[in-house]
Specification:
Jelly Rolls, eight-stranded antiparallel β-sheet, ConA-like_dom_sf, DUF1349, DUF1349 domain-containing protein, UCP022704
Length: 196
């Protein structure tokens, strides 16, 4: 992309400080607190707003990309990208461990959360990039593993007048010791079209 710019980790601010954060060259190693998650009400009946996200401004007409490497082992281990307006309006997309395998999924929350997902066992332990393009009243979420083609994950609504932030996200709802290696964080032009 012509206008791609790396975002320095120090340019963004933490929503809910993780257990540990360690710079490793250009990478950032983030260890989640046990019990951390983002979810609102649906099916489970609880509200969690204590997941970890390193957020920067996310305006209309831009895209945010986050890349990471992780091997997930426990139920609901997750990493990816969070887009946040407020505690009731947010979107997360990435890899989450459920039913014994990593899944590519997204949660869209407008008061209540929903969840869509598809298994990607072949992505375990490999670099995954999540891309969110913000155009008009929509967020287009895509993902890829290493240099494979982009996959469409979700098209979701977001008020074009909303002030939003976005960036790397990690949660460990059920265990201690989940560490994720984030390998890049960038802003670029949004996808030119919904369909290629």
């Amino acid at each position: 992309m012509e206008n791609r710019r790396a975002i320095e980790w120090s340019e963004a601010a933490w929503l809910n400080q993780p257990e540990a954060v360690l710079a490793d060259g250009s990478n950032l190693l983030v260890t989640a607190r046990k019990g951390s998650d983002f979810w609102r009400t649906t099916s489970y009946g609880f509200v969690h707003d204590d997941g970890h996200a390193l957020l920067t401004d996310f305006g209309v007409g831009t895209a945010i990309e986050v890349a990471f490497v992780a091997s997930f082992e426990e139920l609901y281990d997750q990493a990816g990208l969070l887009i946040r307006v407020d505690e009731q309006t947010w979107i997360k997309a990435g890899i989450e461990y459920t039913d014994g395998a990593p899944y590519l999924g997204a949660v869209v929350t407008h008061g209540r959360s929903d969840w869509s997902l598809a298994p990607v066992p072949e992505w375990d332990g490999r670099e995954v990039t999540i891309r969110a393009s913000r155009t008009g009243d929509a967020i287009t979420l895509r993902a890829r593993c290493e240099d494979e083609p982009w996959r469409m994950v979700r098209l979701a609504p977001l008020d074009p007048g909303a002030t939003a932030a976005a960036g790397p996200m990690v949660c460990a709802p059920t265990r201690e010791g989940l560490t994720v290696r984030f390998t890049s964080f960038a802003v670029t032009d949004p996808d030119a079209a919904l369909h290629s």
